Task: inverse folding
């Protein structure tokens, strides 16, 4: 038996998220199906980040166990030949059997794209959220600064979360404009359910002058979900990169790059 690690990229438009669901096709179910056909085994893929329905990824990390004789680095080529065009394996390699992507300290980086222009651009519709009203970028930046560091983010989460703690650490948050696109990039050691999209929805409220920038700090301290903004639509969100903080000697020796690409 051996364990294979993969860097998975996907357009989440046509999928009901990462995790297997009873009511639709997911990224996990497609990987299980395709790798199972390739190896002739019952495959159970474990993903580092269980992205929501409609969310995209440039670099999600996943592992599966197999007795196949296919070399670890060759799995990416063999799997990609069988996957649909909107899911691709960017890299694969053998890792120790005790390696688990959810148990490694890491930094995840998400990016949210807001197409902030007068009319929609059809070619951008699947990767960004179209928003007609002008947004004050400087106020959004000031509000975002309040979110950096370690905080209880329960006000920016699904109230029914089963997480043991709602304390999370945001290591960096950046709000920039690139022509008609506003890019909100958030890095952290972990995120609650809908946390990034709730942060984006709240920052957009600040950009529209519904909230003053300082109000974001009050939302955090209130621990009250009803005080934060709406959940931003899924299509604007992409898991951009996944960086291990404590790779074991085997992974370091193999020079695994799990940072994703811009």
Result:
């Amino acid at each position: 038996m051996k364990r294979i690690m993969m860097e998975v990229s996907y357009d989440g438009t046509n999928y009901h998220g990462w995790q297997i669901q009873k009511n639709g096709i997911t990224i996990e179910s497609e990987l299980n199906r395709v790798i199972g056909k390739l190896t002739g085994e019952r495959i159970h893929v474990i993903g580092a980040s269980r992205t929501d329905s409609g969310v995209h990824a440039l670099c999600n990390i996943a592992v599966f166990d197999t007795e196949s004789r296919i070399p670890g680095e060759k799995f990416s080529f063999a799997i990609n030949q069988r996957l649909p065009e909107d899911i691709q394996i960017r890299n694969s390699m053998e890792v120790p059997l005790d390696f688990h992507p959810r148990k490694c300290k890491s930094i995840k980086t998400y990016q949210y794209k807001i197409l902030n222009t007068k009319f929609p651009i059809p070619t951008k519709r699947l990767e960004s959220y179209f928003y007609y009203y002008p947004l004050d970028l400087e106020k959004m930046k000031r509000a975002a600064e309040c979110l950096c560091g370690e905080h209880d983010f329960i006000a920016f989460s699904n109230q029914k979360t089963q997480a043991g703690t709602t304390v999370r650490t945001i290591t960096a948050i950046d709000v920039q404009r690139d022509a008609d696109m506003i890019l909100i990039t958030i890095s952290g050691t972990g995120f609650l359910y809908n946390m990034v999209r709730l942060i984006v929805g709240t920052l957009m409220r600040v950009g529209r002058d519904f909230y003053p920038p300082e109000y974001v700090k009050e939302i955090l301290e209130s621990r009250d979900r009803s005080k934060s903004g709406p959940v931003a639509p899924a299509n604007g969100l992409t898991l951009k990169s996944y960086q291990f903080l404590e790779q074991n000697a085997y992974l370091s020796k193999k020079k695994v790059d799990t940072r994703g690409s811009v």
In short: The domain at 2-103 is CATH 3.30.70.580 (Alpha-Beta Plaits). The first helix runs from residue 27 to 39. The chain has six helices and ten strands.
